[in-house]
Specification:
heterodimer; A: 266 residues; 13 helices; B: 308 residues; six-stranded mixed β-sheet; binds adenosine-5'-diphosphate; binds magnesium ion
């Protein structure tokens, strides 16, 4: 692996991809939304008196209430609402790289610029790493940035220190800082595999979007009270993802072979 | 500079279980500094051959050496030492011409990418447009930019896959002029084309190829091998008796009348022509003009390809 060439690929992808308005919007809009929305929710629930809340709080899934421990009911309610976003934060690094990777591989396939690239001394591993990093890094950066911004602004939106400490908790930190990058790697390799089969970046993007289905399962499970998102669950998810990533990297590299790209990709 | 021995590429066919032989048992060699034309109809396997020689795909059988390196063994070194203008050379259309070249210069590990890019932009007459997006370029300019891209790392061997196909005559001419100037620099050039004039004008030797190698020779020899050398005598009036008489002269292989012209096939016009002229004048012919009949390479090509 030649880092200089990987960097050149990353630079090139960014120079090109970020001239595409649509991609910029996907990268920027989601993190913005996921920062502003939970802040708005905190702000809206901030002045609610504990008494008025108690009725609602008992509507929360029982399994969740148990996890609330010493929290005041309205704090418990806030933490519950914000926790819904945790799953969305895990989705971000899955969605964003998909659109970048889809454009950077399918786009290059349709403009016929892959062959000159493959004719250079760059190895396919370097090329894949470059394209993967170009897609994954902005996604990871945007997710981390959005989360840190949210945590920083939460007190201003009326979150008590207890609530903030529940948000900036090991569960969230694992979700955002460990699961996020693992999700991004999965998404990139999935996009590579899909890209080898399709000729339209939008199709590639949509097909890669299938990846969010299992995450949606987490969301609904949580709302239905079947699943409580806690540290052990997150660690389990992280380990599973790491295993999936290894498989996905292997499969992605299988698909991304010089001769296969030139002769089998249609 | 390039040697191949029994080079063969077989692809899996569209229908499962079938195969397509794109290149069959190809053996030839190209000398250093030579412009080697690779001529064949669509689907002949030209692009496949170029991809094999540039280590983009692997051979099914056979061997090839490019610049002393063996395909299948020294692939990365081959890619570093050859330049290729692919059949459909895509650019990063959103990026400037200059940026396009700098990216590739970096990938090839060129010492000062910006300076090298500038050199080739100037050389190919694209300097004034260097900051424009490659997507805004005309076809001819794109092709020149693609040639610049293929030259950035100063490859010893340059592969050009149909550099002028799909270009209008003016753009094709720009590109041909660019190739001609490269020829002057002593680079080895492997030129795939189905444009015969182009091959005739630019190439030192031409291979005629259709899955298998049909023949390799210089353009002049190809013509001569098929047609010998022919001299045309333009006369005011032509008598049939003169034709038989000329046909009987020593050194003349054949003679025939075409309107007022006498077409004579000879091995060595320089020594035989004076005798023919003397004979015709003595017989009372009014000789208006004498010239060599040049067969176009197209005639040669069609003849060979149709029998391949
Ligand atoms: N990836 C491939 N899979 C199957 N057949 C192929 C593939 N690439 C080329 N061929 C076949 O090989 C033959 C030669 O193709 P090509 O090298 O592109 O010819 P040319 O460049 O001379 O037009 C054609 O019959 C083509 O259909
Ligand atoms: Mg071709």
């Amino acid at each position: 692996m030649n880092l200089h060439r990987i960097r050149t690929i990353v630079d090139k992808e960014w120079a090109e991809v970020f001239k595409n308005q649509l991609v910029i919007w996907t990268v920027a809009a989601l993190p913005l939304l996921f920062t502003l929305l939970p802040l708005g929710i905190l702000f809206a629930t901030r002045s609610v008196t504990p008494d008025a809340m108690s009725g609602d709080v008992t509507d929360l899934p029982k399994s969740f209430l148990n996890a609330c421990g010493a929290l005041a009911p309205y704090e418990c309610f806030q933490v519950y609402l914000i926790n819904q976003f945790l799953v969305l934060y895990m989705m971000m690094p899955l969605i964003i790289p998909t659109s970048i990777a889809a454009y950077s591989i399918v786009g290059e396939k349709t403009t016929r610029s892959l062959e000159p690239l493959l004719a250079t001394p760059v190895t396919t591993e370097e090329l894949l790493a470059g394209k993967g990093l170009a897609a994954a890094l902005p996604a990871i950066g945007a997710t981390w940035g959005a989360f840190l911004l949210f945590v920083a602004l939460a007190p201003l939106a009326g979150a008590t220190p207890t609530v903030v400490s529940r948000i900036f908790s090991p569960t969230w930190i694992v979700a955002v800082f460990v699961i996020g990058p693992l999700m991004a790697i999965l998404a990139v390799n999935f996009a590579v595999m899909v890209s080898s089969r399709v000729t339209d970046p939008r199709t590639a993007e949509q097909l890669s979007g299938l990846l969010i289905v299992p995450i949606m399962g987490l969301i609904f499970g949580q709302i239905a009270g079947v699943i409580v998102i806690n540290l052990p669950l997150m660690l389990g998810v992280a380990v599973t993802l790491a295993a999936l990533d290894i498989g996905a990297i292997y499969l992605g590299a299988q698909v991304f072979q010089r001769e296969a790209i030139l002769t089998k990709w249609k | 500079m390039i040697q191949t021995e029994g080079l063969t590429k077989i692809f899996p066919g569209e229908v499962k279980g079938t195969t397509v032989t794109a290149v069959d048992n190809l053996s030839f060699s190209v000398e250093e500094g030579e412009v080697f034309g690779f001529l064949g109809p669509n689907g002949a396997g030209k692009t496949t051959t170029v991809r094999l020689l540039c280590a983009l795909i692997g051979p099914s059988r056979g061997e090839a050496r490019v610049n002393g390196l063996t395909i299948g063994r020294d692939d990365q070194a081959i890619r570093q030492s050859v330049g290729i203008l692919t059949e459909t050379p895509g650019m990063y259309d959103r990026l400037s011409a200059e940026k396009n070249l700098i990216i590739f210069a970096k990938l090839y590990g060129v010492p000062d990418p910006a300076a090298r890019a500038a050199h080739y932009l100037k050389m190919l007459g694209l300097w004034d447009r260097r900051l424009d997006a490659a997507g805004s370029f005309s076809k001819g300019m794109r092709q020149k930019l693609a040639i610049a891209r293929a030259l950035l790392h100063e490859p010893k061997v340059l592969f050009l896959d149909e550099p002028t196909s799909g270009l209008d005559p003016e753009a094709a001419r720009l590109v041909r002029d660019a190739i001609e100037s490269l020829k002057g620099e002593g680079r080895t050039i492997f030129l795939c084309t189905h444009n015969l004039d182009e091959a005739d004008r630019l190439c030192d030797r031409i291979a005629i190829f259709k899955t298998r190698l049909v023949t390799v020779d210089t353009p002049a020899n190809l013509r001569q091998r098929l047609y010998g050398r022919q001299v045309v005598f333009h006369l005011a009036r032509l008598e049939p008796a003169w034709v038989t008489a000329v046909a009987g002269l020593p050194g003349v292989r054949a003679a025939e009348a075409v309107d007022h012209r006498l077409v004579v096939r000879v091995d060595d016009p320089e020594t035989v022509n004076p005798a023919i002229v003397r004979h015709l004048v003595a017989a009372g012919a009014d000789l208006r003009f004498v010239g060599e009949l040049r067969h176009s390479l197209e005639d040669v090509y069609l003849q060979l390809i149709n029998h391949a």
